[in-house]
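Before going further, it is useful to explain how the protein records used in this thesis are read. An example of such a record is reproduced below.

***
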Amino acid sequence: MVDYSIPFSDAVFKQARQRVSAHAYHTPLLTSRLLSERTGFEVRLKAEMFQRTGSYKLRGPLNKLLDLTEEERSRGVIGTSAGNHAQGLALAAQIYGIRSIVVMATNATPSKVEATKAYGAEVILHGSIWDEANEYALELIRKHGYTYVHPFDDPALIAGQSTLGQELMEDWPEVDVIVAPIGGGGLISGTALAAKHAKPSVKVIGVESSGAPGMRDSVRAGHVVTLPEVDCIIDGLRVKTVGTTTHRIISRYVDDIVTLPDSDIFEAVRWTMSHCKLVVEGAAAAPVAALLHGLVKAPQGSKVACVLTGGNINLDQLKGLRWN
């Protein structure tokens, strides 16, 4: 077992890469001429919509589940998710021959619910937001003894997500800025640790919905805060309470956090589909939205990578958008 102290050691990065690359794709880093012309940066897009399950979320469980003891695996694993962690956990558990249970909010995207079931998980719908689903999962753990796999606030899971950052830095070592969305903070934590390990001068910028700025507010406060309410319908960004581990990592390794309203992020979904010919979900379009709205501050000509975290979009949420 490696030591998951922060910052991660070479051994942590190497082990996670070996475990994850055995079953997950090394996704492409695509150029975007139009986005580059629009922003004045040299922009590339880390296309995790081409990952298995349609999202980066497979990476973390592929590492985390191999850290469990045989006894922990035998009890079955349980997770809570807006949808992408559900699918990632379900597939990883299927690969390793482990029973999986996932608690999802009742308003979870139907396609994500069905996909999670197709990967072999037992799905329980409860609550209207991740935090409520998570509370119910903890009750089930107390009752049935399942082994909990947190969707973002776990060092082994974050190490699995760091493989995205490792790939990005290998494919484009000259990158100056990495822009990634923030929900609970697991993806950007792993990405930032890997990127800064490879190149300490690289800047990492996080993007949140202005209706759910939990990490921005927590970083400003110097401790994790729970938002009294959220005004966000993008499931990958809709979190009231971010992680304590992710807060600690982001406070140290992420250079800036910017926010936009859901409407601007959904407009970026449309823009990315129309101009880049890529199907992205809301959270994945947040970095593109930040670029389009001038929120990424860097010298002209900077090499900027946007992490497009997934493509499991709820098509009903696109109704009413302008497509011209």
Remarks:
- The mean pLDDT is 94.
- Residues 58-148 form a domain with the Rossmann fold fold (CATH 3.40.50.1100).
